[in-house]
Amino acid sequence: MRFVVVTGMSGGGKTTALKMLEDAGFYCVDNLPISLVEKLVELIAIPESEIDKVALGLDVRADMRFEDAQKMLKQVKSKGYPIEILFLDCDDNVLIKRYKETRRIHPLVQDGRVEDAVHQERRILHDIQKNADYVIDTTNLLTRELKAELDRIFVKNEEYNSLMITVMSFGFKYGIPSDADLVFDVRFLPNPYYIDGLRNKTGNDPEVQDFVMACPEAEEFLDKLTDMLNFLVPNYVREGKYRLVICIGCTGGKHRSVTLANALYQRMKEHPGECGIHLVHKDVDKKHG
Known about the structure:
- By secondary structure, this protein is of the alpha/beta class.
- The protein folds into 2 domains: about 1-160, Rossmann fold, CATH 3.40.50; about 165-280, no CATH class.
- The protein is about 40% helix and about 20% strand.
- The protein is built from 10 helices and 9 strands.
- It has helices at about 15-25, 35-45, 65-80, 90-100, 115-125, 125-130, 145-155, 205-215, 215-240, 255-270; strands at about 1-10, 25-30, 55, 85-90, 135, 165-170, 180-185, 245-250, 275-280.
- The strands form 2 sheets. It has a 5-stranded parallel β-sheet, with helices on both faces. A 4-stranded parallel β-sheet has the order 7-8-6-9.
């Protein structure tokens, strides 16, 4: 039997995760009354039960004490049932933006602000996130990347990567990303923007990559950055960090930063170790003004 409780921040992707687990063969139940959860687990645990994989969605709601849900999970676990907790997290600013864009109502909003509701929910969920078996941060994840991560954990049964690394290129003229953990400035490298034939290309094009990486300092920077991350990442994992955003910036976020972010991503992808990794080019499609 495999029983997975899917919870996390509202707007963080719980509904999407449940649909993906359903496609993977899980019997999915959303917002089951707390008093019935233990009975459901007992029924699934019966040897002759036809259902052997269940995913239960658990949300924070204004009409429910979440402490009761946590007590229930501890009680069921204490009886020897193998319950796993999947927590979907997301940056507060991104959650607030999602609610404003979709005009959905946060479950904890009454007459207050979405910002206050998000902060209140994070306080409520602090303990269950701390004790979760899996924490997936969806701040910068594409839908296909979330599916790949869920498949890896719950279908292929591969080892869980406790740290998700985002390698992000950006342009300083648009501001440093608010979720950045580590920021590196590559404006010391020659700028392809001033080269005829390269201005309208990006660091995703071979011509720009060749121009940037032909500079000896680019390779040296990449070697030193890789060496530092080889030291930092295992220590972050040891301390329980589950999200690391590495930002590489140039003036417009189109040439140098994209080239170096691509190169770093490829190096880290070849030797993933204890982390998952994905790539984001924040400002590559913006036009220089």
